[in-house]
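Service request form, structural biology core

Requester: graduate student, group of Dr. S.
Request type: structure prediction, single chain
Budget code: on file
Notes: please return the result as structure tokens.

Sequence provided:
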Amino acid sequence: MSRVVRKVKLRNRLGLHARPSTLIASTAAKFESDIFLIKEEENGEVMRVNAKSLFGIMMLTAPMGTELTIEAEGPDAEEAVEALVRLIEVEKFNEE
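Core staff response, request fulfilled:
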């Protein structure tokens, strides 16, 4: 089983609000792999949420410039991570 880990930086002006969170969850839901978003707080605390869970993603409260780690494990992990990297860093949630 394949495991893929990539770091991304939120580049859209408003960071993770309802619309981008919904786009992440709906994109992640298209894949069979288990997919997580990980955010490390300045105090060292690590938040790890299911990328298919809108509620979990909203709990990250991540402004522009926040670095997130995408972690996927499963048969389509590479494709899942690539799709999320494209959505977050390249397309910037189509907000610009």
